[in-house]
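Take one record.
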Amino acid sequence: MATPAAAGAPPAPRPASRLRPPNVPNPAMAGIRGLAALAVLVFHVGSQPGGDGEPLLRGIPAQWISPLAIVAVGIFIGMSGFFLYHPMSLAHLQGTKQRPLDFYLARRLGRIYPPYWVALVGIVVLFGYTGLTGWDWIPVLTLTHVYDPRLANVGLYVSWTLAVEATFYVTLPMFAWVLRRLAPPSRTTVRQRFRAQLIGVACVYLTGILCRTLVLLGPDSWLTYTKYALFNFLDGFGGGMLFAVLLSWRKVGHELPRWMSWLVRHPWVCLLFALELYWLGTTLGFPPGLELTGLPAGRLALFAVSLLLIIPLLCLPGIFDEHGTSAYHRVFGSTPLLWLGGISYGVYLWNLPWTQQLSTLQQTGTTTFGSDLIGTWTLTADVPGGFWFLLGTVFLGSVVVAAASYLLLEQPLMARVKRYFVAGRGAPRIRTPEGGPQRAPAPGVPVGGEPDPTEI
């Protein structure tokens, strides 16, 4: 029999609705992630051929739109480095236990693989994709296909970035383990551990720069076989990890450099500088796509410097402004952008298949949906041409499918993983205030309504 609540006790929290905005630790960063996914969508739409066979966007608009994909992918990579390494960095500085490895891997692999599998099956069943046969499915499903030049771009084209991310997910705990052995909390001070982390992250960053330089300057075969290898992107992950170390340093009671604190207090200065660098890059020779081979040294240097500074300037106020009350946070953390950030993974997965399907309809007046598995049907329609119609329809189709993926698959799956580990698998039972038994959660596992720092 239920007992009445004690006088003055706070009411029990209502169960969270699936239709509430995502509960993330940093709404502004979630909004920026959503805008990055939208930037990839705009890039894919603008790259489609028009009626004359040329891209829909050309000239000055194309010059501005093309670099969006590069910056967006850099944002995804940098955010992964920051959000995933921050709990590890903070635990090291504080001398506390790391999160359980099985919890970390369950969340990371559960976050990336199931929605990807659904999207991969979706393009086969709904859009009639026939580029995969036989044993080729195994490396594509496991995201190891990028190491085979024959399969690198089959299936979902954007999956190459997922393969890089998945490799980083597996490698990162090893990096954190090595640092804890080199600077054990029991025998080092906080400052010594902080310096060890800075040195380790600097090695990660410089390794990425060195490897990419060697690949770009080496024989063509190097690029063919290592184009999507993790070491070519370590500078992006390392930049995010550096922000994680600095935030952890502040959380243990130390101050950021004065110039950085000033930028955090003036977020619009950061945004203006980022826009200026973007304009400079597009005007003076930003690479037109993700291919960096054959570029003059000056353009390559400009690209590297621009990318090095644009992404940190965009993200600096969102990461280090702990109050989150500025106009920067109100804009980037607004409900529409927060929702777009929540469904951004689905938008990223589905936008290119929708773009190709609707571009065919726009050019020929007809397109075919379905496959031999469910049957096919042909849509014939006289639709407007041009960039804006295609952008609107692709955005609508991608958002609808991404929202369904988030609400029906991604959110329930992540909640189930969290409940499983909060239940404290194998942990001793404790007595709750109500008198009922409950297992203690594993160390470092978020409980209740607490947002997971690695949610993004």
